[in-house]
TrEMBL record:
One Gene Ontology term of the molecular function aspect: ATP binding
Lineage, uppermost ranks: Bacteria, Bacillati, Bacillota, Clostridia, Lachnospirales
Signal peptide: none
Region spans: Disordered: 326-373
Entries under SUPFAM superfamilies matching the protein: P-loop containing nucleoside triphosphate hydrolases, vWA-like
Any Pfam family hit: AAA_5
Domain VWFA: start-end pairs: 494-673
Protein name in the entry: Dynein-related subfamily AAA family protein
Length: 677
């Protein structure tokens, strides 16, 4: 049958180009997105300035972005190629490189320089479909500018030897993941050059079933449906708990295929799906608990039993409230699912209780565990008090500036800087000693993940690079280039923890859990060198002080931070959440770090006098989240109270963390922060 989507039917492709045109497999099923893109491009192909040549496919891993791009190659009859972006990409990766070549057939051994075009230039010049994978990871703004220039409708690329003009058949398809931990937003200039965009999610259950049947040859629709429902549920749970991995279509296909080969459904679920999402024991426990709540295991066992296959694993409810997948032979005395086990290479670390550990002394104690103090002289004390007063004044000015022109502009507000007492210091040490083994273990695992963020220097004497030095041509070692050298490692993350200090936090141990969480977040960020803000807030403390902010930890003046003041966190009155979020989000938006994470720890929906409640308050919070998300701030809501559904509705499912077990709150928050590095 003739292909109705061919864009240039009269074009003659070379043998190489014909080999690059993708051939649709028998299992390929045309999606709605594929039809939409084909119709849009075909309709506008001869419309000059309205021609559609730049496409954006944004969605989770495994949602079919690359498969769709290849299908467009078959639909349009154009060769397909791709380039995968990486963090240290430079202009030579966009434009190509000039490299020294030593001609072996020449007696004088003279060096010649030859230009090697990049894959981008080849596709651009010859009129191919180019898939640009993950441009969001590129750090160098100059590289993005070069890419932007290449995507202009009538653009051109200035090469060292010539100018290349955009071929009329060239189509760029940008594919990028959406909302992953640590993932930068797509450059605004790049996004503006896109003429058609698709939001790539997991398809509807029936479409998943149809595709799996075509891919695997399985004819059991009910089995495929139950498996698809499990994939969707696990994917949503992973997003809700900020777990990095994704349950996508690839996992679905291979899981079905494994079961068709006679493997146990539940065991294959772990190896084909869950372990692809995460291998962290705490996160696996969360996924298992979600499966138990949704009856996933029972549904799987019921559907596979119709084929004579029964699962050998069961879900056991542990004493700590977590569900664990166990085989019948598993030792009954094995530790709880959320216990932090010591890895083989964690020398000197321990998961024993703090009373028996000699490694849990706080940073302000001596070798014998006795606290060390430095007594300030009177003039030092006076100078310190002046600094504290000036900083407190500056924080109040910043907070008022943040809410200017908002609905909270006329609300009476004071930013306090609580100070600790001897009792607070003792309480802090008790909490920290219990948490430090876990924090040290997580820090040890996290430190290797810290990445270079910016490049500020050039390293010379290289055989390739971004800058050519003509004065070095006479050098016989071919080292005529320089390339950017990254500076010392520094975290790419800034964190703000907002703690709701409303009166209801005093119930059910929520306040104690919030204190432990604050200690864990501070100690972890401090040990990893992550800039951190820890603020609390309440409303209606007095008729004049309608909003109270408590600055416990602030990265602007680290020497003025009193970590023991975190024990001064207390439940007071109402909560004006939107105002608190706006103030902290503004501080984050002004930070220089790449990833900016704001975690709100709350037990109830917004409510403050006289009328900050209901739909009005929710809309205000949603507006703050929307506005500052566009400025690069990532929001997460850790809900620990009775209004979880309302909080989830305000923040959205993808930003919501349901904390059922308060004992797990400190560890969960630290794990989430670590995943954004």
């Amino acid at each position: 049958m003739e292909n109705k989507w061919l864009l240039s039917p009269g074009r003659q492709l070379t043998e190489e180009e014909q080999a690059l045109v993708w051939k649709k497999t028998s299992s390929h099923i045309e999606s709605n997105a594929e039809r939409r893109i084909c119709e849009s491009i075909k309709h506008n192909w001869e419309m000059g300035e309205m021609k559609i040549t730049n496409i954006l496919l944004e969605g989770d891993a495994g949602s079919g972005k690359t498969q769709l791009t290849k299908a467009l190659s078959a639909d349009f009859g154009l060769p397909y190629t791709k380039v995968t972006c990486f963090a240290d990409m430079d202009k030579s990766d966009i434009l190509g490189s000039i490299l020294p070549v030593l001609k072996s057939d020449r007696e004088d051994n003279n060096i010649e320089y030859q230009y090697y075009p990049s894959e981008i230039v080849r596709a651009y010049e010859n009129g191919w479909i180019l898939e640009i994978q993950e441009p969001t990871v590129i750090r160098d703004a100059a590289v993005l500018m070069a890419l932007n220039s290449a995507l202009e409708p009538d653009g051109s690329i200035n090469l060292p030897s010539r100018i290349v003009h955009r071929h009329p058949d060239f189509i760029a398809v940008i594919t990028t993941n959406r909302g992953y931990n640590g993932c930068r937003p797509l450059n605004e200039a790049l996004r503006d050059r896109v003429q058609h965009a698709e939001k790539m999610d997991l398809p509807p259950i029936e479409v998943m079933v149809e595709r799996a049947a075509a891919k695997t040859g399985c004819c059991d629709v009910e089995l495929l449906r139950v498996f698809a429902q499990a994939i969707v549920m696990l994917d949503r749970t992973a997003r809700a708990n900020a777990i990095k991995g994704v349950a996508g279509m690839r996992s679905y296909f291979y899981w079905v295929d494994a079961v068709l080969q006679g493997n146990d459904a539940v065991k294959s679920l772990y190896h084909k799906v869950i372990y692809k999402i995460t291998t962290d024991s705490d996160e696996i426990a969360l996924l298992e608990q979600a499966m138990s709540n949704h009856g996933t295991i029972e549904a799987l066992e019921a559907v596979v039993s119709q084929h004579g296959r029964t699962g050998s694993e069961i879900l056991e409810l542990r004493a700590d409230g977590n569900f664990e997948a166990l085989s019948p032979a598993l030792d009954k005395d094995s530790p709880p699912a959320v216990a932090l086990r010591r890895s083989a290479d964690s020398e000197g670390e321990s998961n024993s209780s703090p009373e028996n550990s000699a490694q849990t002394q706080s940073s302000d104690t001596g070798d014998d565990g006795v606290p060390m103090y430095h007594e300030l002289q009177p003039e030092e004390q006076e100078g310190l008090e002046r600094e504290k007063s000036a900083f407190r004044k500056r924080l109040n000015q910043q907070a008022r500036a943040a809410v200017k022109s908002s609905a909270h502009e006329k609300i009476g507000m004071i930013v306090h800087r609580p100070e600790s007492t001897a009792a607070h210091r003792q309480e802090y040490r008790q909490i920290a000693s219990a948490l430090m083994p876990v924090i040290r273990e997580l820090t040890r695992k996290t430190e290797p993940l810290l990445e270079h963020e910016v490049s500020v220097e050039l390293s010379g004497n290289r055989v390739f690079g971004t800058k050519f030095h003509a004065e070095k041509v006479a050098s016989p070692d071919f080292r005529h280039f320089s390339k950017k050298r990254p500076p010392e490692e520094e975290p790419s993350l800034a964190v703000a923890l907002r703690i709701d200090q409303s009166a209801s936090m005093n119930a059910f141990g929520r306040l104690a859990a919030a204190k432990r969480a604050a200690v864990a977040v501070y100690e972890f960020c401090e040990s990893c060198g992550i800039p951190v803000l820890i603020y609390g807030d309440t409303a209606d403390r007095s008729p004049k002080e309608k909003m109270s902010m408590y600055s416990y930890i602030d990265w602007e003046e680290p020497k003025l931070n009193d970590k023991y003041s975190l024990m001064a966190i207390q439940s007071i009155s109402n909560n004006r959440d939107g105002m608190a979020l706006r103030i902290l989000a503004e501080k984050l938006a002004n930070a220089t770090q790449t990833t900016k994470l704001l975690i709100s720890l709350s037990d109830g929906q917004p409510k403050a006098m006289p009328d900050y409640t209901g739909a009005h308050a929710k809309d205000d919070m949603k507006r703050v989240i929307h506005d500052y998300s566009r400025k690069g701030v990532l929001f997460l809501a850790a809900a620990i109270g009775q209004d979880k559904e309302t909080i989830c509705d305000i923040y959205g499912q993808e930003r919501f963390i349901d904390i059922t077990n308060l004992e797990q709150l400190p560890t969960r928050l630290v794990q989430i922060i670590a995943k954004y590095l």
